[in-house]
Amino acid sequence: MAKFVGASDKVFLRDLSDRRKKVKQLLWGDWLNVVEETADGWAKVKWGATHYWLPRGQVQDERPLEVVFLDVGQGDGCMLVTPEAPPAERVVLIDAGQGDNLFRFIKWRFGKLKKDFKFHASVITHPDSDHYLGFRPIFDQVRFWFSKVYHNGVGERGGADRFGPSDATGRYLTDLVETDAKARALYAGATSHGSMPYPKLLNRALTSGRVGSVEMLSTAHGEKHGGRTWMPGFSPASNPELTIEVLGPVVEPDAQGRARLRWFGGAPGGADKDPGKTKNGHSVLLRLRYREFSLLFGGDLNLPAEDRLLRYYGGLTDAQPRADGVAVARTRLRSDVMKTCHHGSSDVTDEFLQAVDPFAFVVSSGDQESHVHPRPDLLGRLGRHGRGDAPLILCTEILRSTREKEDATLVSTLRSLDAKIEDPATPTAERATSRAERAKIQDTLGRRNVEVYGAINLRTDGARLALSFLMEEPRVGIGGPKRWHTYWFEHDPQQGFIPRKKAPLD
Hints:
ten-stranded mixed sheet; six-stranded mixed sheet; globular; 506 residues; 25% helix
């Protein structure tokens, strides 16, 4: 029967022949295949191909919400899993980095299933390669299906008009890719888009036969309820306990009601057009709420975008100081955890941080890049403007136990095996041996995304919250072989989420 690990960081699989021997540490909410429950309070579980014991008191029926901020190097890659038990769970991928880390991770997690796996949705927050290129192997995987692919509507394409035409004033993008029909008209026959990778990626999705539809997600595109916009299937009408509100991009209709997005520039107000700032600033901005817990996915917002959002949600004119809108904007933006904007870039506003007011930040950044992410001054600002005396700052790059390049030998071997398998001249027996060897390496690489790279694992039931990451080396002691380090929080009606001093099962 399906059960889940209880809310403690001291849950260990026990040796089948000696229940006192702790073998492997588990995380709250890990799925358990319970095959037997004994009268003296033990549960026998099957983990992989092996059976272990667990104290029955460390097993629970309810599954927590799970969010994994995967270390994808330079870029963003995130997996959201709703709290329903399999197969009713919904899995949403929010960005996928630039390489194949996310692909290897989800293949390790879902690829072993005996049937195809259908994701609820993928969200491409904006057309920057360190957010979308990682979807290429995912869309190519014949066993992965998607009900929806969402994007921010900025239809990057080849030619002189990279994002299509602007309005007569030159201040707004008007040729937005709002519907699946528009996406197919623009991208499905993509021989006219040259070598640009974004059109090629959407062409892969649209022509795969495994994607339901490709649609824009914004304040004007989604499921409407209560005067606000929600990711379809996640409005209060669909499930009042678990919602995902769409806070950006902010659409500004023209006089005829046609959707527009304003050009952003190097200064607030978008005085100078800047393609990079415009597509980043119009990232899909999502605010998840599960019972008492909230989480903001910040995309690659920048200073002019945050200025615009503060004025929009704070009810300010362009002439008023940003600080005047913080209190009002906080009623829409305030969140317990924030996926920090733009990998720790310092191109942010203090007022936006104050409006979000999180007690924990997640920074997704990578080695071997020229952006200096996360910026040291930005980390200081996060600590200064975060909620409480000691805001938590978790960074995939800082928490990484080893650098990606240390996998270079395995990756090189994998490519050689791929070439051998695809070569018609390779003998059948050798091809079979190569396939088996390739499967082992793929499994190893997949596990390293969780067990070596700096993945940050968030789990919550809406009243309790655990933020976990793997330590560089397991710590062996009286309590057992501890591999995960976890920060625990619990919700207080007066104070919100506060650090939990002692887990109930500790």
